[in-house]
Structure formats: structure tokens, C-alpha cells
Amino acid sequence: MFAYIEQITQTMNPPNQILLIPCTVIFLLWYYLHVPWNLPNLPRIPFYVSIIGLWSSMGQDEIYERWLRKPLESHGAVLIWFAGRWSILVTKPEWLTDMFRNEDLYAKAGSQKKIPWSVIATLVGDNIINAHGENWKLYTAIMKPGLQKKHFDVQPVVRKSRRLVDKLVEEQNLVSADGCDGKGIVANHYVQQWAVDVMGVSFLDLDLQALEKPLNAVRLESIQSVIKGILFRPLFFNFPDLDRFPWLFNSRKFAFRIMNEFGDRLVDAVHDKINTQNYKPPGGDDMVVHMLARARRDGRLTEKQYRDNLKIVFLTAHENAQQLVNSMFWQLGTLPDAQQKLRDEIRFANCNPEALTDLPYLTATIYELLRLYPPVSQLINRITLRDAQLGGKVAIPKGTFVGWNAYGVHVNPAIWGPDAMEFRPERWGSTVNEMHARFRRDTVRGTYIPFNAHSRKCLGQGFVLLQMRVLLAELVGRVKWRVEDGYQLKMTPGGIMAPLGCKVVLEEVNKSA
Ligand code: HEM
């Protein structure tokens, strides 16, 4: 194409040559941004909505309300510009189940396939979440027993959760002692330390001790804040082709360097601990890290596959839990009665951590948090391997990217009733059995998808529910909290969904009793 343009230019006189420049720019923009003719006839979300983060700080809930809710609720799917191309975003449950059930047609294709040159692909590589076919089967066979253990050792989670509450109380006391009564603290820094520590002791046989040290003292943990700040920058997220030219952008050179540093440090930390000769894990060698290391030694995994899967365990097993806890601090911080109800249930039951699974209000609270604040709120990471008819209705050509919006499904009044936007744990039923049954039924039907559904559903779901139960029990047992006066809810503009900059004021319950 460029040779053709050059040929035309040579045959033109100078004024026409000058005119050709804007024409070429317009043509190239059109070429890059136009909607392919063969996409189905669905409402199109205006292009500027995808790049709105360049000039506005709107949260993803506000963006959804303003531009996506109406077309999605009336049509079940829309065309949207996502990560450099027009894709199909779906919220109609029947169509979602069709997509989730048929992974051989709607195949996982993460950034390692879509944009392999990009910063995000450098971070995540080819792993158990984004791989397809034989690679996915291989990773699953190796890792699943470590991700879905029948009995996770709950004591390290209890220890870390107690430590988190200690740190929050210490920080609140410092702020209050400074004469700032009524001022709150940002829990997120400590919640990240907790989430990384819990992930380390539960999956990687590594106690990173981030909670034991001052903020930013453990690089593998503090680097996460840098990575999260880089990943969803609207310009590079929406135009990943820019990552082909890191020499043009210093910030991208830095981004590539940080992603590599994270991988190097993680592999070294694991190596120093478990790959040393004669290391015998005290709790047995049934963690996912031991399985990955064995597969690497046996030659079932290449060095890169080993590294990519270590990284994804680190990332996914801490960040989603971290952000769910942030949403929990916000939501329950506005509902003192719900906190008290949890406190009464936990005290009355006077239970050990294992018995927490039997508590109905605790269970319903976590399910309801995942409904209104699904950390993975939207993902477009599947590609049609052949021409498809989604739900027998929407003709989708081969090679189209398709995905889902969990938040949209969960706040649709046609699915969840007129109070869909309200936090109401009671909707889950009155007994734990009833709640589990509803959870399973809605997952299978595609009406409750915080963990996705069917063959590619989350393998950490059981663990994270346990982790949340333990933390909530420790937290409400020792403190009550409220959102600081004047804080206005602002959700992340894209990526993982959670409140931004929420401050909470904590008070120890035994002091206030
Ligand atoms: C609140 C916490 C969590 C949420 C909301 C969550 C959500 C999800 C979602 C939505 C998916 C599907 C992704 C996709 O379709 O591409 C997924 C997959 C997965 N998650 Fe989680 N996750 C959480 C915690 C965890 C934890 C703690 C682990 C443990 C390492 C984990 C491991 C995985 C794995 C291995 C997959 C891939 C499953 C497959 O494709 O076979 N997750 N998760």
C-alpha cells in the first residue's frame, strides 16, 4: 500500500502533494478504526467511550450506566472497540452459556495471541488462564491439584488476616494520635500486602512477609502497584500497536523493564527457596509451585511456560482477592448494621475457621459482594475459530474477538429484579445450602459469572471464598469501620473493578463496647 501511495505522489504537482498528506492520515485512521463490514448488526458503542479515560476520570460503573446498559439490556450484545479492534461484548445469559460451553469454537485467545508484542503479553505470557487447546490441557493437568486442594491449610490465612487487622488498627491509632480524629486510612496498601502474603504462603511456598515489613520494603509486592498503574493506561490499552515502538515512548521502555524485573525476581525467589538441593517442604510438596517445579525438571514445561504460569498464579491469586476486599471495605463501611449482623453470627457461632463455611449471612455477604463488585468485571479474550451463530441467533465471522461483561449481567433488573443495584445479601436465601444451590444454578445459567462458568471457570474460587470468610471473621470480630465523611465512590475506570482511594475510619469493638 505504501509503495502505491509513493507512486501516486511522484506523479503529482506540489500543491496536490500537500493535500495528499491529510488525505493519507484520514485514510489510515479510517483503515485502523472502521468497523469491519462482516460483523453482525448489533448496536455500536461509540469509539470515544473506549478512550474516555484519556480526558475523564469516569469510573467503569458510570461508563456502563451512561453508554452500555441500555443497548446491552435491549440487545444482549454490542460492538465495542477493545484493545485495538472492534469486538463483540455479550451479556445475554443464554448467549454467554453458549460461549462458555463451546470453548472449541469460542477459543481463549489472550494477549499472548492477540498482541504478542505488547507490554501486557510480556507480563502474562502463555498461561493456564489464557491458553487454549493442548497447552491449556497440559497446564491444567499439572496445576489443578495444587489450585483445588481438598484441604488448604487455613492457619497461615488466619495468621496473615490477624496481622492485617493489627496493621490497620496501628495505622488508625497513628492517624488518630496525630489529632486527626475522624480521619480515616487508605486500607488498600495493607490489603495488597495481605493478599500477596496469603498468595505466597498458600500457592508458592513463599512467605514474602510483606505485612511484617514497612510499606514498599518487599519489592515483589511493591512492584505490583507499579504494574497495576501501567497496565490499563487508556492510550496504550486501546492502541496496543503503540507497544511496537517502545523507542518512541520512554514510559513503555520502562514498562517492559518492570514486567521483566517482576518475572526475574519471582523466578529467583522461588528458585532460592524450593529448588535448592534437599529442600523438604514442611507441609508436604502439594502446592502449585512444587507441581510447576517438578514439571519443569521433568521437561514437561519449558522454562518460559514455567515462568509464565508462576507469574499468573502470583498475579491472579492476589489481585482479585485484594480488589474484592477493597470493595468490601467500601460497601460494608456504609452499612454498620450488616457489620453487626456478621459480628453477631460469628460470635454466636464461636467457631473455628473451618466452621465458617456454615454461616449463612457471611456466605451471602461474600456472594453479594461478588455480584455487585465482580473484580473481573469485563473480559474480551476469546476468538471464533470458525464462523459461529451465537445462541443460534447472532452470526459471527471467524476470527472475531468476543467477551463478556459480568457487571452488566449482575446489575440487570430483568435478571436480578428491580433491586439489582442494591446490596442485599438476603436475596441469596436463608440457609447455606439454599445459597450454594443458587450460586451453582446461576453460574450454570450464565446469570452469575464472577468466576466465569463451565469448562474455563476459575480454579481458585474455592480458595478465595475461604480466604474471604477468614478475613471477614477476623475483621468484624475486632473492628467496626465506616467510610470517611466526604468520600464519594469512584470506581476504577477500567481493568479490575474496585473503588479508588476509599478511606475508612476504624474503631476497635472492645474499646467501643
Ligand atoms: C476474587 C477472586 C477471584 C476472582 C473474581 C476470579 C475470577 C476469575 C475469572 C473471571 C476467571 C476466568 C477468566 C477468563 O475467562 O479468562 C478465572 C480463571 C482462573 N482463575 Fe480465578 N479468580 C479469583 C481468584 C483466583 C485465585 C485465588 C486463583 C488461584 C491461583 C485463581 C486461579 C484461576 C485460574 C487458574 C483460572 C483459569 C481457569 C481455566 O481457564 O482453566 N483465581 N478467575
From TrEMBL:
<dbReference type="InterPro" id="IPR001128">
    <property type="entry name" value="Cyt_P450"/>
</dbReference>
<dbReference type="GO" id="GO:0016705">
    <property type="term" value="F:oxidoreductase activity, acting on paired donors, with incorporation or reduction of molecular oxygen"/>
</dbReference>
<keyword id="KW-0472">Membrane</keyword>
<keyword id="KW-0349">Heme</keyword>
<feature type="transmembrane region" description="Helical">
    <location>
        <begin position="16"/>
        <end position="33"/>
    </location>
</feature>
<keyword id="KW-1133">Transmembrane helix</keyword>
<dbReference type="InterPro" id="IPR002403">
    <property type="entry name" value="Cyt_P450_E_grp-IV"/>
</dbReference>
<dbReference type="GO" id="GO:0020037">
    <property type="term" value="F:heme binding"/>
</dbReference>
<comment type="similarity">
    <text>Belongs to the cytochrome P450 family.</text>
</comment>
<dbReference type="Pfam" id="PF00067">
    <property type="entry name" value="p450"/>
</dbReference>
<dbReference type="GO" id="GO:0005506">
    <property type="term" value="F:iron ion binding"/>
</dbReference>
<protein>
    <submittedName>
        <fullName>Putative sporulation-specific N-formyltyrosine oxidase Dit2</fullName>
    </submittedName>
</protein>
<keyword id="KW-0479">Metal-binding</keyword>
<keyword id="KW-0503">Monooxygenase</keyword>
<dbReference type="GO" id="GO:0004497">
    <property type="term" value="F:monooxygenase activity"/>
</dbReference>
<keyword id="KW-0812">Transmembrane</keyword>
<dbReference type="InterPro" id="IPR036396">
    <property type="entry name" value="Cyt_P450_sf"/>
</dbReference>
<keyword id="KW-0560">Oxidoreductase</keyword>
<dbReference type="InterPro" id="IPR050121">
    <property type="entry name" value="Cytochrome_P450_monoxygenase"/>
</dbReference>
<keyword id="KW-0408">Iron</keyword>
<feature type="binding site" description="axial binding residue">
    <location>
        <position position="458"/>
    </location>
    <ligand>
        <name>heme</name>
    </ligand>
</feature>
